[in-house]
């Protein structure tokens, strides 16, 4: 049971990191947007979803360098589908949600990387630890909205996610894949 909890925690960490990438000319529609994190426990993928996050994004494909993205994810909202796992993930060994209730991403640059592809550089902060990350993002038009999709692999150990007995990466892998689908109305 602890092994499964660890996988869920790891996935949550990744999801927090993933939130760093999207941006648009309007407020993000969180009802249509998702941020997930997938980790591997004993080489079996485990995915969880963050249910509460906010974003302030500005993006124009013709002027990507003028864009920006800021995300805040409530780490206590991470959902692995089982309340006992969710409680463990909120604890000190994982997210320590009481001490560090939010993971954040603040962009510092957006650069073109091909047709409808961009690289968003910024600072990802989880559990009080910050790392500069580069997130590949694809942008698609969906009527009056834009969708921003991407994924990013992070190392949970760089953010002190999984301490104590969970620090060992032989049971729960160090790599966490954060995937996101962010929808924002165009102005």
UniProtKB/TrEMBL annotation:
InterPro entries per UniProt: Lipid/polyisoprenoid-bd_YceI, TTHA0802/YceI-like_sf
Ranges of residues in domain Lipid/polyisoprenoid-binding YceI-like: 25-185
Alphabetic keyword roster: Signal
Signal peptide: 1-26
Pfam families in the record: YceI (PF04264)
PANTHER family named in the record: PROTEIN YCEI
Name of the protein this chain belongs to: Polyisoprenoid-binding protein YceI
Organism from which the protein derives: Paraburkholderia phenazinium
């Amino acid at each position: 049971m602890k092994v499964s909890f660890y996988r869920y925690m790891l996935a949550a960490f990744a999801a927090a990191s993933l939130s760093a990438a999207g941006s648009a000319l309007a407020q993000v529609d969180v009802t249509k947007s998702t941020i997930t994190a997938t980790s591997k426990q004993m080489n079996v993928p485990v995915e969880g979803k963050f249910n509460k996050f906010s974003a302030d994004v500005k993006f124009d494909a013709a002027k990507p360098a003028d864009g920006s993205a800021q995300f805040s994810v409530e780490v206590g909202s991470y959902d692995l589908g089982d309340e006992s796992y969710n409680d463990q993930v909120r604890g000190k060994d994982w997210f320590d949600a009481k001490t560090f209730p939010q993971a954040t991403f603040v962009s510092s640059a957006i650069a073109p990387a091909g047709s409808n592809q961009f690289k968003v550089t910024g600072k990802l902060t989880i559990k009080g630890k910050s790392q500069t990350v580069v997130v590949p993002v694809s942008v698609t038009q969906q009527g009056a909205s834009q969708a921003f999709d991407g994924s990013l692999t992070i190392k949970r150990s760089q953010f002190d996610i999984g301490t104590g007995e969970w620090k060992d990466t032989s049971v729960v892998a160090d790599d966490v894949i954060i995937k996101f689908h962010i929808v924002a109305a165009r102005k």
